[in-house]
């Protein structure tokens, strides 16, 4: 029995040694299947070589949604912003106030190779700091900005005492300077989109829309659009009178 245990331990040790000997390029290939926090949890404590490989890894995909505070701070202290390609920020429930701490560590314009960003229920103050600077991210192709509860409240509010976010200057700047370069967009803003040209847009997700005319105008301004997902408000029926010949997929829900 003891010999069997020793044999098993030797096999495990041998397999682990083989894993350690994998090339750096192969580790990078493996890392492509993991979020950054998963890479840190799974590999960073194995040995010094693998830890150094992680530190030099140059295409981090960071998802800060529902993440532990200790892991959040570890990642912020360990990564170089120019090596991040995808970023998810969230102030939702268990990560309340996260965006404020993130902005203590970084300025968004440091993420020069960022291609995708998703903002989930971010605090208004953080949005005011983030949105006006997104135009500096020349590699940005995908933006999700559709879960900010405070913005949603402002847009749907009928109370004239509540300022409408449609007239919010950072939003206008975002539409004019950032939206035209995107290939993927998910947003609660609709009226602002009717005057924006989308020469590169392939996929569009509109979380709330209450006028069919908005859709027709978007079709006119997005000649390459392949997929459209829309949540219609107050619609009894929906007809597509404006042709969009590039469109391959249409998903429609009604609330």
Topology:
Layout: H1 2-20, H2 24-31, H3 36-43, H4 48-56, E1 60-63, H5 69-78, E2 84-90, H6 98-105, E3 116-120, H7 124-130, E4 142-145, H8 149-156, H9 169-177, E5 184-187, E6 203-209, H10 212-221, E7 227-232, E8 249-254
Parallel strand pairs: 1-2, 2-3, 3-4, 4-5, 5-6, 6-7, 7-8
Protein name: F-box domain-containing protein
InterPro entries: LRR_dom_sf (IPR032675)
Organism: Adineta ricciae
What does this structure look like?
With 255 residues, this protein is α/β, with parallel strands linked by helices. It has a domain at 165-255. Helix content is 38%, strand content 17%. It has helices at 2-20, 24-31, 36-43, 48-56, 69-78, 98-105, 124-130, 149-156, 169-177, 212-221, and strands at 60-63, 84-90, 116-120, 142-145, 184-187, 203-209, 227-232, 249-254. The chain has an eight-stranded parallel β-sheet with strand order 1-2-3-4-5-6-7-8, with helices on one face. Helix 10 (212-221) links the parallel strand 6 (203-209) and strand 7 (227-232). It comes from Adineta ricciae (Rotifer). This is F-box domain-containing protein.
């Amino acid at each position: 029995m003891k010999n069997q245990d020793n044999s098993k331990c030797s096999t495990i040790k041998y397999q682990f040694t083989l894993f350690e000997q994998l090339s750096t390029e192969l580790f990078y290939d493996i890392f492509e299947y993991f979020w950054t926090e998963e890479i840190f949890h799974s590999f960073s404590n194995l040995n010094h070589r693998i830890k150094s490989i992680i530190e030099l890894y140059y295409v981090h995909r960071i998802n800060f949604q529902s993440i532990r505070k200790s892991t959040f701070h570890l990642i912020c202290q360990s990564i170089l912003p120019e090596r991040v390609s995808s970023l998810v920020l969230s102030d939702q429930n268990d990560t309340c106030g996260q965006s404020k701490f993130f902005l203590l560590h970084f300025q968004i314009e440091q993420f020069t190779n960022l291609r995708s960003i998703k903002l989930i229920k971010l605090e208004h103050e953080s949005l005011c700091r983030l949105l006006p600077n997104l135009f500096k991210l020349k590699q940005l192709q995908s933006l999700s900005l559709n879960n900010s509860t405070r913005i949603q409240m402002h847009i749907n509010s009928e109370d004239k005492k509540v300022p409408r976010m449609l007239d919010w200057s950072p939003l206008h700047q975002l539409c004019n300077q950032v939206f035209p370069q995107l290939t993927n967009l998910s947003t609660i803003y609709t009226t602002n989109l009717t005057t924006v040209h989308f020469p590169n847009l392939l996929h569009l997700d509109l979380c709330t829309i209450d006028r069919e005319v908005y859709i027709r105008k978007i079709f006119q301004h997005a000649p390459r659009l392949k997929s459209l997902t829309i949540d219609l408000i107050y619609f009894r029926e929906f007809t597509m009178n404006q042709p969009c010949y590039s469109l391959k997929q249409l998903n429609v829900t009604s609330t």
